[in-house]
Specification:
The protein is an alpha/beta fold. Helices cover 52% and strands 14% of the residues. It contains 23 helices and 15 strands. Helix 19 (465-477) links the parallel strand 10 (457-462) and strand 11 (482-486). Helix 3 (63-87) crosses helix 10, helix 9 (216-237) crosses helix 10 and helix 13 runs antiparallel to helix 14.
Length: 596
């Protein structure tokens, strides 16, 4: 391959290593990819103003360098803190912080970032302006070198470079910083891999160099190099001392940054060996600020880079935000905010967060247990499904009934609390050795409960094969012995039973469409529609049940509001001792009858 073919692609995309991740920035977008504590790559993207659409003054040489320098500091700090939210803990806001956010509309993240930026600038001034000047003053006093001379500024610049090298060497001893330097290496390798025209894979990126001409480390070296010349010229015309000298240097920093940026851009465009000595120190320093990344880090960097490429190519792609770790009480607040527009009961939000976090509902409001991003993501997804009308227990996939857990989905009705009273009543009637049949078993909630709570032999039937499949899973899940039969009521039933129990469909056909959206649109109509008057199944049961009951056997059925007397009338021909039982809310709910 010729030299001409080696670099086939040029890109202006640059990046920054963050905590357990990489930020990449292109012409119109930036993307930050972070691997969370559970190992999943999380992504946050943002649209940025392309250079050609910025005011001309901001694109002018030198000034553009100052603008980029400020944007890098401010944006870099925000990005670093955002990455920490993904991987680290989310602190609960204090009452004062909440008051600031709600009453004064203060951006707390912005305040924290500003404070961090001020502290960082203060430390930089102390280390790289004040300390070098103090050291140079001491050397000047010992050697007699004039403080306005070039040699004084050279000494001061060398001291500044020495402090910088010591600083990055010391920080590289810290475990978290070393990992950040590894992600820095992943960033460079990814960009170089793309510029070489190679497919963006960890295997290809691994073979690329971890140093790059446009690196911020090289930029910082140029800042220190250019500052020697700029401060020397300034001192020639403005011979100031002490504090005024420090203030002058601070005032000249934007000019130094702007010139250094232009130098960086110019040298990045050429591979001339003549100019290599100017690049060499910065490239050498990158050997310290970068480390060889592992393949997982390269995956993160590549994900961020590809996202920027995608968004630069397609301006319609929307921004996205990180899903960050949240404390359980904070997560509950956010889930309830999602549910609020649909007036969904807050208990649903409590169930969602409780199930996913493992925190009891009663403890949620004060719980500071950290929920990882995967839990937060699922909680938001469940809340959105609930907002659209999906029943809570279909979303979670489980429902509690009589102290047992049952799998539920659109093949079966969700077991209702009032049906627990039907089970309670049945258990009070079952004797040792009895045989029980559960007609229209659905999820198997009644059959499984009776099998678990009594010594009876329990059978269960349903016309729906899907319902029977799920009921069988529930029996296995709860370790209950139930024999399931595919049957349209008594069609495939053999033998006789001491008790037949049933909660058949009892909603009149015309009323089905008047039910709540989450019932009519999600739960099976087959298990709801009881015919024109809602009594079709009761007629068939009343007509045939006595043939399948032992002498003196009992029939126990749940029914709807206002149906008690009509069902009693249907049973009079074949049954005696007909009794109506009210549920806990005082509504007629259960009918019991004994075979004549």
């Amino acid at each position: 391959m010729s030299k001409k073919d080696k670099k086939v692609t040029k890109t202006s995309i640059g990046g920054q290593a963050v905590l357990e991740g990489v930020m990449m920035r292109g012409k119109t977008a930036m993307a930050t990819a972070v691997r969370d504590a559970e190992g999943k790559i999380r992504m946050e993207t943002k649209r940025v103003t392309p250079p050609e659409k910025q005011p001309w003054i901001l694109r002018a040489p030198i000034i553009r360098g100052v603008v980029n320098f400020i944007n890098s500091m401010v944006g870099g700090s925000k990005t670093l803190m955002r990455s920490a939210e993904v991987y680290g803990e989310e602190e609960e806001p204090s009452k004062f912080e909440k008051w600031l956010a709600e009453k004064l509309h203060v951006d707390l993240m912005g305040v924290v970032t500003t404070i961090a930026l001020i502290l960082g600038l203060g430390l930089s001034v102390l280390l790289f302006v004040m300390l070098p000047q103090w050291v140079s003053n001491g050397i000047s006093a010992l050697t007699g070198i004039e403080s306005t001379s070039f040699w004084y500024n050279l000494i001061e610049g060398l001291v500044r470079i020495f402090i910088f090298v010591c600083y990055i060497l010391l920080t590289s001893l810290m475990k978290d910083i070393r990992r950040t330097y590894m992600y820095h290496g992943a960033e460079h390798k990814t960009i170089t891999c793309y510029e070489k025209g190679l497919e963006l894979t960890p295997e290809n990126a691994r073979t690329c160099t971890r140093v790059h001409n446009r690196c911020g480390t090289t930029f910082l070296f140029f800042v220190m190099l250019v500052s020697i010349l700029v401060f020397s010229v300034a001192n020639t015309f403005l011979a100031v001392q002490g504090v005024w000298r420090m203030l002058l240097k601070i005032a000249l920093l934007p000019l130094v940054a702007g010139l250094s940026y232009e130098l960086l851009k110019a040298l990045a465009k050429t591979d001339s060996w003549i100019l290599f000595p100017l690049k060499a120190p910065g490239l050498a320093l990158q050997r310290i600020t970068t480390r060889e990344p592992d393949d997982g880090m390269l995956e993160v960097a590549i994900a961020a880079f590809k996202k920027v490429l995608e968004m630069d190519a397609d301006p319609t792609i929307p921004e996205e935000q990180f899903v960050t770790a949240l404390k359980a009480n904070v997560l509950l607040e956010q889930v309830n905010k999602i549910l609020a527009p649909a007036n969904v009961d807050e208990s649903d939000g409590e169930w969602i967060v409780s199930i996913l976090s493992g925190v009891p509902r009663s403890d949620l409001a004060k719980s500071t247990q950290l929920c990882q991003p995967s839990v937060v993501e699922r909680a938001f997804d469940w809340a959105k499904q609930r907002l659209e009308g999906a029943p809570l227990w279909y979303i979670t996939g489980d429902a509690e009934f009589y102290g047992y857990t049952f799998k539920v989905d659109s093949r079966v009705l969700i077991p209702r609390p009032e049906t627990e009273e039907l089970c309670e009543y049945a258990l009070s009637l079952i004797k040792d050795g009895d045989s029980v049949l559960d007609l229209c078993t659905g999820s198997g909630a009644i059959a499984v409960t009776l099998a678990k709570k009594s010594s009876a032999t329990v059978y269960a039937s349903d016309i729906s094969e899907g319902a029977l499949e799920l009921a069988s899973q529930n029996a296995e899940l709860n370790q209950a012995s139930v024999q399931f039969i595919h049957s349209n009521l008594f069609e495939n039933i053999e033998g006789k039973f001491n008790l037949i129990v049933s909660n058949p469909p009892y909603i009149p056909t015309a009323d089905v469409q008047q039910l709540d959206k989450e019932v009519k649109d999600y739960e099976p109509i087959l298990a709801l529609d009881g015919g024109v008057d809602g009594l079709d199944f009761y007629r068939l049961i009343a007509k045939n049940a006595s043939e399948y009951l032992e002498d003196g056997g009992l029939l126990l059925m749940e029914f709807g509001i206002g149906q008690a007397q009509d069902i009693a009338n249907l049973l009079e021909e074949s049954f005696t001792e007909i009794e109506i039982k009210k549920d806990i809310s005082g509504k007629e709910r259960i009918i019991k009858a004994r075979k004549r």
